[in-house]
Amino acid sequence: MPADLAVVGLGHLGLPLAQAAVSAGIETLAFDPRHTAALAAGRLPADEGALTTADLRRMLAAGFRPTGNPAELGRVRTAVICAPTPLGADRSPDLAQVAEAARALAPRLRPHTTVILESPAYPGTTEGFLRPLLEEGSGLTAGRDFHLAHSPGRFDPGSRTHAYGSTPKVIGGLTPACTESAAAFYSRLTDKVVRARGPREAEATHLLETNFRHVNIALVNEMAVLCHDLGVDLWDVIRCAETKPFGFQSFRPGPGVGGHAVALDPAYLPHTAHTPGHPLRLVGLAQEVNQRMPQYVIQRAATLLNEHGKSVRGARILLLGVTYKPDIAGQQGAPAEEIAPRLLQMGASVSYHDPHIPHWSVLGRPVPRADSLYEAAADADLTLLLQPHRTYDLQGLAVKAQLLLDTRGATPVGAAHRL
Fold this sequence. Notes:
By secondary structure, the protein is of the alpha/beta class. It has helices spanning 14-23, 36-40, 53-61, 96-105, 125-138, 176-186, 199-230, 234-241, 281-307, 336-345, 373-379, 394-400; strands at residues 3-8, 28-31, 65-67, 76-81, 114-117, 147-150, 169-173, 193-195, 316-320, 349-353, 361-362, 365-366, 382-385, 404-406, 417-418. Helix 7 (199-230) packs parallel to helix 9. It starts with a strand and ends with a strand.
């Protein structure tokens, strides 16, 4: 059966896009051989926190079709590539899965099809990397025979205020006609479409947005350390500062950044001889600051235990919330993934509680999961709040816990030690 849309590559971008398309009545298939069988059976990929199993089942009931057959890609009007691009060892995006998606799509590409790249990518990827793969594999020319564009993925998992349809989509096409074709597709899903001058500008938009977040989180993380050393209540400082109606945007400190959107420094990106790399020094510094936060949390935990006559070695430590964001199941880059191994290596006895994560392993060993939150907090020498899920009664937890370190500033004032 033909479909209006093929989502190529599933995960934190592909599944929300497919959900929005199905909800809009768009015939949608998903091509990702890694996950076809699980999705068809109503099971989400591991570490997929954007959707719930109930969401997936509703999509399947509405006609959503996961497929592992690349021949079906030749029957769609629009193909959106959402393959993940994790950072490699050299700190540049790994485009291997984008290349796989392009090679699966190219031989089936028909004239007048619209191809959009949503995967996070450095400026120039759509033109310099994706375009040649599609043209060589199809014999067609982008901008003449088929439309090609980039649209940065924008999705806030678990958010109740930033829904897919109310979040503007930025689009940059290879030609004006490419931009308009992509805009016509996204206008069926979102309330507002923003046209960039081209794909490089659209790609650089994502670069700016991601680095803005990381730099500002790093700033407030440094303020957290400074304020603790000075005996200043940072959370009160933030409360006061965010009353300024101009020139300030509020960010919160935490045990680490986490998530799929990783800060990028162009100094580590591939460049041609005509575009030499120039480092974004603030981004590099921000990465250093944010990468230090898990160790800082451990240091604060050790200090609190020492102040109460205990050491980390042999201490019972309960981690609350081991996802990278509240109220979702995703663990990509979650601070807990770094904090737990370090505590275990220091000799602590670590357990965890998270309503979204039924099983969790660290250093190849399963971490005990607490069944009763209050009992576990009362029994633990130290409870570390890493993610304040909505289901947590933080006031009641503060009463029950022997010692509570809140890394998110979510507990009532005076109820716990804060970062």
